[in-house]
Design a protein that fits this description.
Layout (H helix, E strand, L loop, with lengths): L2 H6 L5 H8 L11 H10 L3 E4 L8 H7 L6 E4 L3 H13 L5 E3 L5 H13 L4 E4 L1 H4 L2 H10 L3 E4 L19 H7 L5 E5 L4 H10 L6 E3 L8 E7 L3 H14 L3 E5 L3 H13 L4 E4 L5 H12 L5 E4 L12 E6 L6 H8 L9 E7 L4 H11 L3 H10 L9 H8 L3 H13 L3 E4 L2 E4 L9 H27 L4 H8 L11 H5 L5
Helix pairs in contact: 3-4, 6-8, 15-19, 16-19
Length: about 500
């Protein structure tokens, strides 16, 4: 669509919108962007499910320059916020952020900018948005639009449920109920319905231009052991001279792959959550600059990483869900040139993800014992006293309490446990405990879907699209399609 055509559509001044868009280096909109920008400018609640690399951030950054009051963006990852703020700085666009990575002086400076209304864009973490000081600061000048980035984290059925997101709806009410834009790269129909309900959105516009990536060829390579995986990865590296990402399920495996590739003479970096921050940042910088050909990483790497020329993404171990896989694999070929997503499939690897899923939530029996004891707490208790009452080892009790505190129903301070008042939390203890059973079942179902994708001899792209509720046809490029002459 030409720029001239864009200016004649809709009731908005698209000449001005396009003029502002050029400040971001944008000449024309990608699928779904125009609809979401229009919804933001019209003050309508909206959900955008745009594929990785589909330009989600533009859908709120651009309208923020045209709205009368600031746009507040709730984002889950500091690295993601830092990356977006760095881009805005490069474009000479004002923004502020409030998060735990700031020094006291930086935080005071940013708070001053927010008070004076300099910044049209304000980034906060979901945890910071819950605080009285943050809400009071944001209310000072008002909020035109509240944006929830990585919005699948809101939903119990998203692949990365994050309890702090449950407080966003109440925070929005206290900010004067501004319209909400929720954006994510992957979400099933069930997930979008749930996040709309959790955020209390009013008849939200759903914009879903489609996850199809014709330039991305999906392959599954069956292996029987790590030697065969190494052979398969060597073949990928030999066939594709460009940059790539290799995902591993654990830190130990990532470190093993990194050492092996370095020994093979590959220019390779290592990224996982236990490496020092400065080491991670330097490794990411070198990969983005083209100084490293391959990044070996856990799922900690990727969100907000805008490297368009990644030619392949290989999964050494299959991830926990098709949501995770679609998002991680989608980091290949963001420049629309041919790229490939390769899953090195070994049936026994299911045990790794099954173990993670088994430890993700407290066990039902533990929760039942705590539910019988916690409501009787009239004053703060020490962990050993509560452990005795709940007939549970102290070490295990601390693990369970971490979950309950993250979900906002208990508070642990100075090694004393207090049940949070119902007035202070959106969900009761019983509701939180019941959600663990539902989430555990949902996680198992998603892992089963991931297994079916790997095992079923059906077009890989069609399987992914069907899972996300989109029209599906054989892609003609995946391993199944090419083995069957282009049809599956």
């Amino acid at each position: 669509m030409s720029a001239a055509t864009e200016t004649t559509r809709g009731a908005f001044d698209w000449t001005r919108v396009l003029r502002e868009a050029r400040r971001f280096g944008v000449e024309r909109f990608r699928p779904g962007q125009r609809e979401l920008i229009e919804a933001v400018l019209a003050g309508r609640d909206a959900i955008g499910v745009l594929p990785t690399g589909g330009g989600k951030s533009l859908c709120y950054q651009l309208p923020a320059l045209l709205l009368p009051k600031p746009t507040v963006v709730v984002s889950p990852l500091l690295a993601l916020v830092q990356d977006q703020v760095a881009h805005l700085d490069a474009w000479r666009l004002e923004s502020s952020r409030l998060d735990s990575s700031l020094s006291a002086a930086e935080e005071r400076h940013n708070e001053t900018e927010i008070r004076t209304g300099i910044s049209p864009l304000i980034y906060v973490t979901p945890e910071r948005l819950q605080t009285e000081d943050c809400l009071a600061l944001l209310r000072r000048n008002g909020v035109s639009r509240l944006v929830v980035d990585e919005a699948h984290c809101v939903s119990e059925w998203g692949h990365d449920f994050r309890p702090a997101y449950l407080g966003i709806a109440e925070a929005a009410r206290r900010l004067g109920s501004p319209p909400i834009l929720a954006v994510t790269a992957t979400a099933t129909a069930e997930t979008t319905r749930d996040l709309a309900a959790q955020l209390r959105m009013q008849s939200p516009l759903l914009v879903r231009p489609g996850l199809a990536r014709p330039n991305l060829a999906f392959r599954v390579v069956r292996t029987v052991n790590d030697d065969r995986k190494r052979e398969a990865l060597r073949a990928v590296l030999a066939a594709e001279p460009g940059a790539g990402i290799v995902y591993a399920a654990t830190i130990a495996v990532a470190e093993e792959i990194h050492a092996w590739l370095a020994g093979e003479g590959v220019s390779v970096g290592l990224y996982h959550g236990k490496r020092p921050m400065h080491a991670r940042e330097e490794t990411q910088r070198r990969f983005m600059a083209g100084e490293l050909r391959v990044m070996v990483a856990t799922k900690a790497f990727g969100l907000g990483v805008d490297k368009p020329d990644v030619r392949f993404v290989a999964h050494w171990t299959f991830p926990d869900s098709l949501e995770s896989y679609a998002q991680e694999a989608g980091r290949a070929g963001r420049d629309s040139k041919p790229a490939q997503a390769v899953l090195l499939f070994r049936l026994e690897d299911r045990r790794i993800q099954s173990y993670f899923l088994g430890t993700r939530y407290p066990r039902p029996a533990e929760c039942q014992r705590l539910c019988a004891v916690l409501p009787q707490i009239a004053s703060p208790l020490a962990p050993d006293t509560l452990a005795d009452a709940a007939q549970m080892p102290v070490r295990r009790l601390r693990v369970v309490l971490e979950h309950l505190e993250r979900d906002g129903v208990v508070r642990v301070r100075d090694d004393e446990i207090t049940v949070v008042s119902p007035r202070e939390t959106p969900r009761s203890l019983a509701e939180v405990v019941a959600s663990y059973t539902r989430r555990r079942a949902g996680d198992r179902a998603r892992l089963d879907a991931m297994m079916r994708y790997a095992e079923r001899l059906e077009c890989r792209a069609a399987q992914l699209l069907r899972y996300f509720g989109e029209p599906a046809a054989a892609c003609g490029a995946c391993d199944v399609c090419t083995a069957s002459g282009g049809a599956s």
